[in-house]
Write a structure and sequence with these properties.
Blueprint: H1 2-26, H2 44-55, H3 57-60, H4 77-104, H5 111-128, H6 135-140, H7 143-160, H8 170-176, E1 181-185, E2 190-192, H9 202-207, E3 213-216, E4 219-226, E5 229-236, H10 238-287, H11 289-300, H12 306-335, E6 338-340, H13 341-357, E7 361-366, E8 371-373, H14 374-391, E9 395-405, E10 408-417, E11 425-431, E12 436-442, E13 446-453
Parallel strand pairs: 7-9
Antiparallel strand pairs: 1-2, 1-5, 3-4, 4-5, 6-8, 9-10, 10-13, 11-12, 12-13
Helix pairs in contact: 1-2, 1-4, 1-7, 5-7, 11-12, 12-13, 12-14, 13-14
Protein backbone atom coordinates (compact mmCIF):
# COMPACT_ATOMS: atom_id res chain seq x y z
CA UNK A 1 0.00 0.00 0.00
CA UNK A 2 2.74 2.47 0.98
CA UNK A 3 4.70 1.67 -2.19
CA UNK A 4 1.65 2.36 -4.31
CA UNK A 5 1.03 5.80 -2.78
CA UNK A 6 4.71 6.65 -3.08
CA UNK A 7 4.43 5.93 -6.82
CA UNK A 8 1.33 8.16 -6.93
CA UNK A 9 3.34 10.99 -5.29
CA UNK A 10 5.68 10.97 -8.29
CA UNK A 11 2.90 12.61 -10.32
CA UNK A 12 2.43 15.22 -7.59
CA UNK A 13 6.02 16.36 -8.11
CA UNK A 14 5.98 15.99 -11.90
CA UNK A 15 2.81 18.06 -12.39
CA UNK A 16 3.83 20.80 -9.96
CA UNK A 17 7.37 21.01 -11.28
CA UNK A 18 6.28 21.38 -14.90
CA UNK A 19 3.72 23.95 -13.71
CA UNK A 20 6.49 25.97 -11.95
CA UNK A 21 8.73 25.74 -14.99
CA UNK A 22 5.91 27.16 -17.11
CA UNK A 23 5.37 30.03 -14.64
CA UNK A 24 9.09 30.74 -14.70
CA UNK A 25 9.03 31.01 -18.50
CA UNK A 26 6.31 33.69 -18.15
CA UNK A 27 8.78 35.89 -16.23
CA UNK A 28 11.36 35.97 -19.02
CA UNK A 29 12.50 39.53 -19.87
CA UNK A 30 10.03 41.12 -17.46
CA UNK A 31 11.13 43.81 -15.03
CA UNK A 32 10.46 43.63 -11.32
CA UNK A 33 7.62 46.14 -11.78
CA UNK A 34 5.96 44.02 -14.48
CA UNK A 35 4.24 40.98 -12.90
CA UNK A 36 2.60 38.21 -14.90
CA UNK A 37 -1.16 38.32 -15.47
CA UNK A 38 -3.25 37.03 -12.56
CA UNK A 39 -5.34 35.05 -15.03
CA UNK A 40 -2.55 32.47 -15.19
CA UNK A 41 -3.28 31.57 -11.56
CA UNK A 42 -6.41 29.74 -12.79
CA UNK A 43 -4.04 27.17 -14.22
CA UNK A 44 -3.41 25.88 -10.69
CA UNK A 45 -6.94 24.39 -10.68
CA UNK A 46 -6.41 21.74 -13.41
CA UNK A 47 -2.89 21.00 -12.13
CA UNK A 48 -3.95 20.28 -8.56
CA UNK A 49 -7.18 18.54 -9.75
CA UNK A 50 -5.08 16.08 -11.73
CA UNK A 51 -2.83 15.53 -8.68
CA UNK A 52 -5.92 14.85 -6.52
CA UNK A 53 -7.34 12.37 -9.05
CA UNK A 54 -4.04 10.47 -9.12
CA UNK A 55 -3.86 10.28 -5.32
CA UNK A 56 -7.47 8.96 -5.20
CA UNK A 57 -6.93 6.48 -8.03
CA UNK A 58 -7.94 3.54 -5.80
CA UNK A 59 -11.49 4.91 -5.70
CA UNK A 60 -12.05 5.25 -9.45
CA UNK A 61 -9.08 3.63 -11.27
CA UNK A 62 -9.10 6.38 -13.93
CA UNK A 63 -5.30 6.70 -13.96
CA UNK A 64 -4.03 3.17 -13.23
CA UNK A 65 -5.74 -0.18 -13.24
CA UNK A 66 -5.68 -2.11 -9.96
CA UNK A 67 -6.01 -5.39 -11.83
CA UNK A 68 -2.82 -7.24 -12.85
CA UNK A 69 -1.75 -6.43 -16.36
CA UNK A 70 1.05 -5.13 -18.54
CA UNK A 71 1.65 -2.49 -21.20
CA UNK A 72 -1.19 -0.13 -22.13
CA UNK A 73 -3.71 -2.18 -20.06
CA UNK A 74 -2.18 -0.79 -16.87
CA UNK A 75 -3.11 2.85 -17.69
CA UNK A 76 -6.49 4.53 -17.68
CA UNK A 77 -7.64 7.63 -19.59
CA UNK A 78 -6.53 9.98 -16.81
CA UNK A 79 -2.92 8.87 -17.25
CA UNK A 80 -2.95 9.94 -20.91
CA UNK A 81 -4.66 13.21 -20.01
CA UNK A 82 -1.81 13.88 -17.56
CA UNK A 83 0.76 13.14 -20.25
CA UNK A 84 -0.99 15.48 -22.68
CA UNK A 85 -1.24 18.16 -19.97
CA UNK A 86 2.49 17.89 -19.11
CA UNK A 87 3.36 17.95 -22.81
CA UNK A 88 1.23 21.07 -23.39
CA UNK A 89 2.85 22.89 -20.44
CA UNK A 90 6.33 21.84 -21.58
CA UNK A 91 5.67 23.06 -25.13
CA UNK A 92 4.18 26.28 -23.75
CA UNK A 93 7.33 26.80 -21.60
CA UNK A 94 9.49 26.37 -24.68
CA UNK A 95 7.34 28.79 -26.69
CA UNK A 96 7.33 31.48 -23.97
CA UNK A 97 11.08 31.07 -23.61
CA UNK A 98 11.68 31.40 -27.35
CA UNK A 99 9.32 34.31 -28.08
CA UNK A 100 11.49 37.10 -26.47
CA UNK A 101 14.62 35.70 -28.09
CA UNK A 102 12.97 35.52 -31.51
CA UNK A 103 11.67 39.09 -31.16
CA UNK A 104 15.17 40.27 -30.24
CA UNK A 105 16.74 38.03 -32.93
CA UNK A 106 19.05 36.48 -30.33
CA UNK A 107 18.78 32.68 -30.14
CA UNK A 108 22.02 32.02 -28.29
CA UNK A 109 20.67 32.91 -24.79
CA UNK A 110 17.84 30.31 -25.07
CA UNK A 111 20.09 27.40 -26.02
CA UNK A 112 21.09 26.44 -22.41
CA UNK A 113 17.50 26.42 -21.00
CA UNK A 114 16.22 24.58 -24.09
CA UNK A 115 18.87 21.89 -23.69
CA UNK A 116 17.93 21.43 -20.04
CA UNK A 117 14.21 21.10 -20.92
CA UNK A 118 15.07 18.60 -23.65
CA UNK A 119 17.03 16.43 -21.21
CA UNK A 120 14.17 16.62 -18.72
CA UNK A 121 11.61 15.64 -21.41
CA UNK A 122 13.66 12.62 -22.48
CA UNK A 123 14.09 11.48 -18.89
CA UNK A 124 10.38 11.86 -18.12
CA UNK A 125 9.30 10.03 -21.28
CA UNK A 126 11.62 7.07 -20.65
CA UNK A 127 10.70 6.97 -16.97
CA UNK A 128 6.93 6.87 -17.63
CA UNK A 129 7.12 4.14 -20.27
CA UNK A 130 9.56 2.14 -18.14
CA UNK A 131 12.06 1.40 -20.91
CA UNK A 132 14.19 -1.53 -19.70
CA UNK A 133 17.66 -0.15 -20.68
CA UNK A 134 16.69 2.99 -18.74
CA UNK A 135 16.43 1.01 -15.49
CA UNK A 136 20.03 1.71 -14.40
CA UNK A 137 19.67 5.42 -15.11
CA UNK A 138 16.59 5.50 -12.85
CA UNK A 139 18.64 3.92 -10.07
CA UNK A 140 21.52 6.38 -10.47
CA UNK A 141 19.26 9.43 -10.81
CA UNK A 142 16.01 9.06 -8.94
CA UNK A 143 12.98 10.90 -10.29
CA UNK A 144 12.43 13.38 -7.45
CA UNK A 145 16.07 14.40 -7.23
CA UNK A 146 16.40 14.68 -11.01
CA UNK A 147 13.27 16.83 -11.36
CA UNK A 148 14.39 19.18 -8.59
CA UNK A 149 17.81 19.47 -10.21
CA UNK A 150 16.19 20.24 -13.59
CA UNK A 151 14.10 23.06 -12.11
CA UNK A 152 17.16 24.57 -10.44
CA UNK A 153 19.26 24.30 -13.60
CA UNK A 154 16.49 25.73 -15.79
CA UNK A 155 15.98 28.78 -13.57
CA UNK A 156 19.74 29.31 -13.15
CA UNK A 157 20.26 29.07 -16.91
CA UNK A 158 17.62 31.75 -17.45
CA UNK A 159 19.36 33.96 -14.89
CA UNK A 160 22.80 33.20 -16.32
CA UNK A 161 21.71 34.13 -19.86
CA UNK A 162 19.98 37.28 -18.48
CA UNK A 163 16.54 36.18 -19.64
CA UNK A 164 15.35 36.65 -16.06
CA UNK A 165 16.75 39.64 -14.14
CA UNK A 166 18.32 38.41 -10.90
CA UNK A 167 19.23 41.66 -9.15
CA UNK A 168 16.06 43.38 -8.03
CA UNK A 169 14.92 45.73 -5.34
CA UNK A 170 17.58 48.38 -5.95
CA UNK A 171 15.37 51.23 -4.78
CA UNK A 172 14.67 49.69 -1.37
CA UNK A 173 18.29 48.72 -0.93
CA UNK A 174 19.64 52.15 -1.86
CA UNK A 175 17.17 53.93 0.42
CA UNK A 176 18.36 51.86 3.37
CA UNK A 177 22.01 52.28 2.38
CA UNK A 178 24.25 55.12 3.58
CA UNK A 179 26.15 55.14 0.27
CA UNK A 180 24.01 57.91 -1.27
CA UNK A 181 24.00 56.27 -4.72
CA UNK A 182 21.68 56.83 -7.68
CA UNK A 183 21.08 54.96 -10.96
CA UNK A 184 20.53 56.39 -14.45
CA UNK A 185 19.47 54.27 -17.45
CA UNK A 186 20.95 54.41 -20.95
CA UNK A 187 18.30 56.91 -22.06
CA UNK A 188 19.48 59.43 -19.46
CA UNK A 189 16.52 58.91 -17.11
CA UNK A 190 17.29 58.80 -13.40
CA UNK A 191 15.72 55.54 -12.24
CA UNK A 192 16.75 55.85 -8.60
CA UNK A 193 17.80 59.15 -7.03
CA UNK A 194 20.26 59.38 -4.12
CA UNK A 195 18.90 59.93 -0.61
CA UNK A 196 20.50 63.38 -0.41
CA UNK A 197 22.22 65.82 -2.71
CA UNK A 198 21.42 68.50 -5.28
CA UNK A 199 19.38 67.93 -8.43
CA UNK A 200 21.61 67.29 -11.41
CA UNK A 201 21.32 66.74 -15.16
CA UNK A 202 22.18 63.56 -17.03
CA UNK A 203 24.98 65.36 -18.89
CA UNK A 204 26.76 66.05 -15.60
CA UNK A 205 26.54 62.36 -14.64
CA UNK A 206 28.09 61.36 -17.96
CA UNK A 207 30.83 63.98 -17.54
CA UNK A 208 31.71 62.60 -14.08
CA UNK A 209 32.38 59.14 -15.52
CA UNK A 210 35.76 58.09 -14.16
CA UNK A 211 36.70 61.65 -13.09
CA UNK A 212 35.07 63.33 -10.06
CA UNK A 213 33.54 66.77 -10.61
CA UNK A 214 33.06 69.44 -7.95
CA UNK A 215 29.44 70.72 -7.87
CA UNK A 216 30.23 73.20 -5.12
CA UNK A 217 32.92 73.52 -2.45
CA UNK A 218 31.20 70.92 -0.22
CA UNK A 219 29.87 68.42 -2.80
CA UNK A 220 31.56 66.24 -5.40
CA UNK A 221 29.94 63.83 -7.88
CA UNK A 222 31.42 60.67 -9.40
CA UNK A 223 29.89 58.05 -11.71
CA UNK A 224 30.66 54.60 -13.14
CA UNK A 225 29.37 52.38 -15.94
CA UNK A 226 26.95 49.57 -15.00
CA UNK A 227 24.96 47.16 -17.13
CA UNK A 228 22.17 49.17 -18.75
CA UNK A 229 23.26 52.61 -17.61
CA UNK A 230 25.37 54.41 -15.02
CA UNK A 231 25.51 54.65 -11.26
CA UNK A 232 26.45 57.94 -9.61
CA UNK A 233 27.03 59.11 -6.07
CA UNK A 234 27.69 62.29 -4.13
CA UNK A 235 30.67 62.78 -1.83
CA UNK A 236 30.00 65.17 1.06
CA UNK A 237 33.09 67.26 1.82
CA UNK A 238 31.64 69.42 4.61
CA UNK A 239 33.39 67.60 7.45
CA UNK A 240 36.63 67.46 5.50
CA UNK A 241 36.52 71.18 4.73
CA UNK A 242 35.74 71.98 8.37
CA UNK A 243 38.69 69.88 9.48
CA UNK A 244 40.94 71.55 6.91
CA UNK A 245 39.93 74.98 8.25
CA UNK A 246 40.83 73.94 11.80
CA UNK A 247 44.14 72.51 10.64
CA UNK A 248 44.89 75.69 8.69
CA UNK A 249 44.38 77.83 11.81
CA UNK A 250 46.51 75.46 13.86
CA UNK A 251 49.15 75.42 11.15
CA UNK A 252 49.46 79.21 11.26
CA UNK A 253 50.22 79.04 15.00
CA UNK A 254 52.87 76.39 14.51
CA UNK A 255 54.31 77.80 11.29
CA UNK A 256 56.93 80.01 12.91
CA UNK A 257 58.17 77.22 15.19
CA UNK A 258 58.22 74.74 12.32
CA UNK A 259 60.15 77.15 10.13
CA UNK A 260 62.81 77.54 12.81
CA UNK A 261 63.06 73.79 13.40
CA UNK A 262 63.20 73.11 9.65
CA UNK A 263 65.92 75.69 9.12
CA UNK A 264 67.91 74.28 12.05
CA UNK A 265 67.59 70.70 10.74
CA UNK A 266 68.63 71.73 7.23
CA UNK A 267 71.66 73.57 8.64
CA UNK A 268 72.66 70.48 10.63
CA UNK A 269 72.25 68.30 7.54
CA UNK A 270 74.38 70.66 5.46
CA UNK A 271 77.06 70.77 8.16
CA UNK A 272 77.11 66.96 8.41
CA UNK A 273 77.38 66.61 4.63
CA UNK A 274 80.12 69.24 4.53
CA UNK A 275 82.09 67.44 7.23
CA UNK A 276 81.69 64.15 5.41
CA UNK A 277 82.78 65.71 2.11
CA UNK A 278 85.82 67.28 3.80
CA UNK A 279 86.73 63.92 5.31
CA UNK A 280 86.43 62.16 1.93
CA UNK A 281 88.40 64.90 0.19
CA UNK A 282 91.15 64.78 2.82
CA UNK A 283 91.43 60.99 2.53
CA UNK A 284 91.55 61.03 -1.27
CA UNK A 285 94.11 63.85 -1.34
CA UNK A 286 96.36 62.07 1.16
CA UNK A 287 95.92 58.51 -0.13
CA UNK A 288 96.10 59.25 -3.84
CA UNK A 289 98.64 62.08 -3.77
CA UNK A 290 101.35 60.04 -5.61
CA UNK A 291 98.96 59.22 -8.46
CA UNK A 292 97.77 62.83 -8.78
CA UNK A 293 101.37 64.01 -8.81
CA UNK A 294 102.37 61.48 -11.47
CA UNK A 295 99.42 62.50 -13.69
CA UNK A 296 100.42 66.18 -13.36
CA UNK A 297 103.97 65.26 -14.27
CA UNK A 298 102.81 63.29 -17.34
CA UNK A 299 100.55 66.14 -18.53
CA UNK A 300 103.31 68.70 -18.01
CA UNK A 301 105.86 66.66 -19.99
CA UNK A 302 103.88 65.16 -22.85
CA UNK A 303 106.20 63.96 -25.65
CA UNK A 304 105.91 65.61 -29.04
CA UNK A 305 106.12 62.39 -31.05
CA UNK A 306 102.84 60.53 -31.59
CA UNK A 307 103.92 57.19 -30.09
CA UNK A 308 105.35 58.76 -26.97
CA UNK A 309 102.27 60.98 -26.60
CA UNK A 310 100.01 57.93 -26.91
CA UNK A 311 101.99 55.90 -24.34
CA UNK A 312 101.98 58.79 -21.86
CA UNK A 313 98.20 59.13 -22.08
CA UNK A 314 97.76 55.37 -21.61
CA UNK A 315 99.81 55.49 -18.42
CA UNK A 316 97.74 58.46 -17.23
CA UNK A 317 94.57 56.44 -17.91
CA UNK A 318 95.86 53.56 -15.75
CA UNK A 319 96.49 56.00 -12.91
CA UNK A 320 93.12 57.70 -13.42
CA UNK A 321 91.13 54.46 -13.22
CA UNK A 322 92.92 53.60 -9.95
CA UNK A 323 91.95 57.01 -8.54
CA UNK A 324 88.33 56.48 -9.59
CA UNK A 325 88.00 52.91 -8.29
CA UNK A 326 89.86 53.59 -5.05
CA UNK A 327 87.57 56.56 -4.36
CA UNK A 328 84.53 54.42 -5.12
CA UNK A 329 85.67 51.67 -2.71
CA UNK A 330 86.27 54.26 -0.02
CA UNK A 331 82.76 55.73 -0.51
CA UNK A 332 81.27 52.23 -0.21
CA UNK A 333 83.23 51.69 3.01
CA UNK A 334 81.58 54.77 4.52
CA UNK A 335 78.12 53.20 4.26
CA UNK A 336 79.14 49.72 5.44
CA UNK A 337 82.06 48.10 7.20
CA UNK A 338 82.17 45.29 4.65
CA UNK A 339 82.39 45.47 0.85
CA UNK A 340 81.37 42.80 -1.63
CA UNK A 341 84.41 41.05 -3.11
CA UNK A 342 82.60 41.38 -6.45
CA UNK A 343 83.00 45.16 -6.18
CA UNK A 344 86.76 44.70 -5.68
CA UNK A 345 86.73 42.41 -8.72
CA UNK A 346 85.19 45.21 -10.82
CA UNK A 347 88.06 47.51 -9.77
CA UNK A 348 90.66 44.91 -10.80
CA UNK A 349 88.82 44.27 -14.09
CA UNK A 350 88.75 47.94 -15.10
CA UNK A 351 92.44 48.41 -14.25
CA UNK A 352 93.32 45.34 -16.34
CA UNK A 353 91.22 46.66 -19.24
CA UNK A 354 93.29 49.88 -19.32
CA UNK A 355 96.52 47.88 -19.09
CA UNK A 356 95.31 45.90 -22.11
CA UNK A 357 95.15 49.21 -24.04
CA UNK A 358 98.87 49.56 -23.35
CA UNK A 359 99.57 46.20 -25.02
CA UNK A 360 99.68 44.13 -21.82
CA UNK A 361 98.05 40.70 -21.93
CA UNK A 362 95.59 40.39 -19.01
CA UNK A 363 93.50 37.65 -17.48
CA UNK A 364 91.29 37.55 -14.39
CA UNK A 365 89.43 34.76 -12.58
CA UNK A 366 87.18 35.83 -9.72
CA UNK A 367 85.52 32.73 -8.26
CA UNK A 368 84.62 33.90 -4.73
CA UNK A 369 81.43 35.80 -3.91
CA UNK A 370 81.53 37.04 -0.32
CA UNK A 371 82.00 40.19 1.71
CA UNK A 372 85.36 41.50 2.93
CA UNK A 373 86.43 44.15 5.38
CA UNK A 374 86.55 47.51 3.60
CA UNK A 375 90.05 48.39 4.85
CA UNK A 376 91.41 45.09 3.49
CA UNK A 377 89.77 45.68 0.10
CA UNK A 378 91.45 49.09 -0.18
CA UNK A 379 94.82 47.67 0.92
CA UNK A 380 94.68 44.76 -1.57
CA UNK A 381 93.88 47.14 -4.41
CA UNK A 382 96.73 49.41 -3.26
CA UNK A 383 99.20 46.48 -3.31
CA UNK A 384 98.12 45.66 -6.86
CA UNK A 385 98.40 49.29 -8.03
CA UNK A 386 101.87 49.74 -6.46
CA UNK A 387 103.06 46.65 -8.33
CA UNK A 388 101.56 47.90 -11.62
CA UNK A 389 103.22 51.32 -11.23
CA UNK A 390 106.50 49.66 -10.19
CA UNK A 391 106.72 47.41 -13.27
CA UNK A 392 104.55 49.36 -15.75
CA UNK A 393 107.25 50.05 -18.32
CA UNK A 394 108.37 46.38 -18.46
CA UNK A 395 105.02 44.55 -18.22
CA UNK A 396 104.06 42.04 -20.88
CA UNK A 397 101.22 40.15 -19.09
CA UNK A 398 99.22 40.23 -15.85
CA UNK A 399 97.24 37.29 -14.38
CA UNK A 400 94.85 37.77 -11.40
CA UNK A 401 93.09 34.84 -9.71
CA UNK A 402 90.92 34.90 -6.57
CA UNK A 403 90.22 31.43 -5.11
CA UNK A 404 89.91 29.43 -1.90
CA UNK A 405 92.71 27.31 -0.39
CA UNK A 406 91.81 25.38 2.78
CA UNK A 407 88.90 27.74 3.50
CA UNK A 408 91.19 30.77 3.21
CA UNK A 409 90.63 33.30 0.44
CA UNK A 410 93.84 33.66 -1.58
CA UNK A 411 94.55 36.31 -4.22
CA UNK A 412 97.27 35.36 -6.74
CA UNK A 413 98.78 38.19 -8.81
CA UNK A 414 101.38 37.27 -11.45
CA UNK A 415 103.37 39.62 -13.69
CA UNK A 416 105.47 38.71 -16.72
CA UNK A 417 108.15 41.17 -17.95
CA UNK A 418 109.35 41.89 -21.43
CA UNK A 419 112.92 42.59 -20.22
CA UNK A 420 115.01 40.92 -17.51
CA UNK A 421 115.45 42.51 -14.08
CA UNK A 422 118.61 42.21 -12.01
CA UNK A 423 116.50 40.92 -9.08
CA UNK A 424 116.80 37.63 -7.20
CA UNK A 425 114.88 37.70 -3.94
CA UNK A 426 112.06 35.94 -2.13
CA UNK A 427 110.39 37.66 0.80
CA UNK A 428 107.50 37.03 3.11
CA UNK A 429 105.93 39.85 5.13
CA UNK A 430 102.88 40.71 7.24
CA UNK A 431 100.78 43.76 6.36
CA UNK A 432 100.27 44.97 9.92
CA UNK A 433 97.50 47.51 9.30
CA UNK A 434 95.41 45.25 7.09
CA UNK A 435 96.05 41.92 8.85
CA UNK A 436 96.85 39.60 5.92
CA UNK A 437 99.96 37.66 4.88
CA UNK A 438 101.72 38.52 1.60
CA UNK A 439 104.23 36.24 -0.16
CA UNK A 440 106.36 38.08 -2.72
CA UNK A 441 108.51 36.23 -5.27
CA UNK A 442 110.70 38.14 -7.75
CA UNK A 443 113.10 36.28 -10.06
CA UNK A 444 113.95 38.86 -12.73
CA UNK A 445 111.56 37.47 -15.36
CA UNK A 446 108.35 37.52 -13.40
CA UNK A 447 106.83 38.64 -10.13
CA UNK A 448 104.21 36.84 -8.09
CA UNK A 449 102.22 37.92 -5.07
CA UNK A 450 100.19 35.50 -2.98
CA UNK A 451 97.91 37.30 -0.52
CA UNK A 452 96.31 35.21 2.25
CA UNK A 453 93.18 36.90 3.55
CA UNK A 454 92.50 35.56 7.07
CA UNK A 455 89.34 36.30 9.07
CA UNK A 456 88.24 39.08 6.76
CA UNK A 457 85.59 37.37 4.64
CA UNK A 458 82.00 36.77 5.78
Amino acid sequence: MATKYISYMYYFFSLNIVHLVFFTSLLIQKSENEPISKRWNWLWIPTELLVLLVLTNDLHEWAFSLSPGSGAERYGPLFYIILIYITVLAIASIVFTLIPAINAKLLRPVIPPMCILAIWAIYTFLYVFDWKPFFYVKIAFTSAEFNILVVILFIESLVFTRLIPSNRGYESFLKLSALNIGIMDEAGKIVSAPNAGPKIKSTLIKSALGKPIMIDKDTMIESAEINGGQSFWFIDLKELNALKSKLYLLNEDLMSENDLLTADNKLKEKMAKLEEQNEIRSYIDAKLKPQFSRIKEIIANLPEDEEGFDNALKEACVLSVYIKRCSNLYLLSKSSGNISIAELGLAFTESLNYLKLSGVKTQIEWNVIKYLDAIKCLKIYEVFENAVERFYSKLSSVDVRLEKENNIIVLNISFEFGDLFSIDEKTKRIEEKSGFLVEEDLDGKSAHWKIYIEGGAV
